[in-house]
Amino acid sequence: MNWNRKSWQKFPITQQPQYSAEDFTKIEEIKEQISNFPGIVSKTSIQNLRSSLVKVQRGEAFLLQGGDCAESFSGFNTQNLTNYFRLFLQMNAVLMEGFKKPVVKIGRIAGQYAKPRSSDFEEINGVKMPSYRGDIINSIEFNEQARKPNPNRLLETYFHSVATYNFIQSLARDGFASFSNVFKWNEEFLSVANRNTEFERIINKINNHINFFQNCGYSPSNSEKLQQADFFTSHEALLLHYEEPFVREIDGKNYCLSADQLWIGDRTRKITHAHVEFLRGIENAVGIKVGSSTDCHELVEIIKAVNPKNEEGKVILIARMGAEKINEFLPPIVENISNSGVGVIWQIDPMHGNIVKAENGYKTRRVSDISSEILSFFKIHKELGTYAGGVHLEMTGNDVTECLGGFQNIIDSDLSKRYHTHCDPRLNSSQSLEIMLQLVNDIC
Ligand code: PEP
Ligand code: CO
User: Fold this and answer.
1) What phi, psi does 317 have (nearest 5°)?
2) pLDDT value at 77 more than 80
3) Which CATH class is domain 7-177+228-443?
4) Cα–Cα distance between 308 and 58 in angstroms, integer?
5) Mean pLDDT to the nearest integer, 25-46
6) What is the pLDDT of residue 213?
7) Ligand 1 pocket, 108 CB below 6 A?
8) What is the residue-averaged pLDDT of the chain?
């Protein structure tokens, strides 16, 4: 198919940093280094995710994906990662209870450091600086030095990602994922949440099931399944100089060992461009963001390019239209895709079409819009007879104040209290769990 890990370099590319000629020499050195480093994930885990996704595509499992909009080096610490994984496990339990299906868990983590931006420059009080493009490229502080792209950040990204991956995998294996912990966290949530009888009922059902298993004699100490969780990783494959050296040929196939799944963003999704070229050559599961301006014909071409043999468990279409637009724009795309005969998994990203500016200038999102877009997504698929396969959220396990609404009733004037994101506003742990409960309550 005339592809190699460098062939993307011959194609037009957007959303890249302005590296100097000197930087490029350094980048080549770093790429050489990374190509000799161990991968972050393994071929086996990439294949295991593909097998799990086959079940999602057949409607036998549900897909939960989430994490920061942009990971940061400064946010890398034990507490943040522990809070994040704990939340993921709580959400997992709610979805399993509701859908009565296994949940495939993919983090936006251990590599989610590169961001597309709507403008190359940011202006504050008349001062103009290059935009922050994620910690893999430059630094968020608003000064000349910080905003200069720095190739060494590729190496820093590698080491942060490896450490993040290893820590989360240790949590997934060492009993932290045990159902007895989920029981305890559920009780904690109920003790602080505003009492909502529907949500309480769902949580009590989960805890009753856990009790039942424990009464039957299954306990984390005698059942591996009760204490372990499969957890995969993903990020946007935006900075291809970083992705390229992770491609390894194993048994005649190319695997990109930077993450189990990689996705292509709404702004770089062009059939004639470098990002599609890169993704079409690798075995990993591939996500494709689908915004309201998506050209259906081109989308089918992209799917055929990345999945020429129409294999199951390979392509995830991530709809991100906005609560207002989804009802108009998604149904024709879903129908077109079904009619074209290409097999895909449909997932909803209810975050990126729902950004609003608060009166005090903060970029935010309303929990009510997010829930509403999810609900529309499920209704649309039900009407069309297709499977609503999963959700994709920007979330943190911390108690931030970045999105409006939820149990805590966060309002505009609260946003400044704990607005810590490096890019888009994330759901906090309570809001994330609440959205899962709402989904299960509405749909199941
Ligand atoms: C993202 O997922 O953070 C993102 C930038 O999404 P999109 O490409 O859909 O705007
Ligand atoms: Co984002």
Assistant:
1) -95, 125
2) yes
3) alpha beta
4) 19
5) 98
6) 87
7) no
8) 96
What does the longest C-alpha to C-alpha distance in the chain come to? 67
User: Residues near 223 by Cβ (< 8 Å), separated by ≥ 6?
Assistant: none
**Closest atom, ligand 1, to C-alpha of 268:** 8
Question: Atom 9 in ligand 1: which residue has the minimum CA distance?
Answer: 266
Ligand 1 pocket test: pick from 261, 267, 299, 347 the residue with the most ligand atoms within 8 Å of its Cβ.
267
Average pLDDT of span 109-126: 96
Give the Cα separation of 73 and 168 in Å (integer): 16
Residue owning the nearest CA to atom 3 of ligand 1:
69
**Measured distance CA(266)–CA(424) in Å, rounded:** 15
The CA-based dihedral angle spanning residues 305, 307, 310, 316, taken in that order and rounded to the nearest 10 degrees: -120
Is residue 285 helix, strand or coil? Answer: strand
Ligand 1 pocket member 353 (CB < 6 A): no
Give the position, in ligand 1's atom list, of the atom nearest the Cα of 108: 2
**Residue located nearest, by CA, to atom 4 of ligand 1:** 265
Cα–Cα distance, 216 to 391 (Å, whole number): 33
* Residue to substitute in 15, 68, 69 for testing ligand 1 pocket (most ligand atoms within 8 angstroms of CB): 69
Q: Shortest CA distance to 292 belongs to which of 354, 358, 221?
A: 354
Question: Ligand 1 center to residue 219 CA distance, Å?
Answer: 40
Of the pLDDT bands very low, low, confident and very high (cuts 50, 70, 90), residue 344 is very high
Q: Are 337 and 319 in contact (CB under 8 A)?
A: no
Measured distance CA(17)–CA(120) in Å, rounded = 9
Q: At how many degrees (to 10) do helices 78-99 and 152-173 cross?
A: 50
Token code pair at residue 70: 């942009």
Query: pLDDT tens-digit profile of 281-300?
Result: 999 999 999 999 999 999 99
Q: How many angstroms from the chain centroid is the CA of residue 55?
A: 19
Contacts of 94 (CB under 8 A, 6+ apart): 202, 203, 206, 433, 436, 437, 440
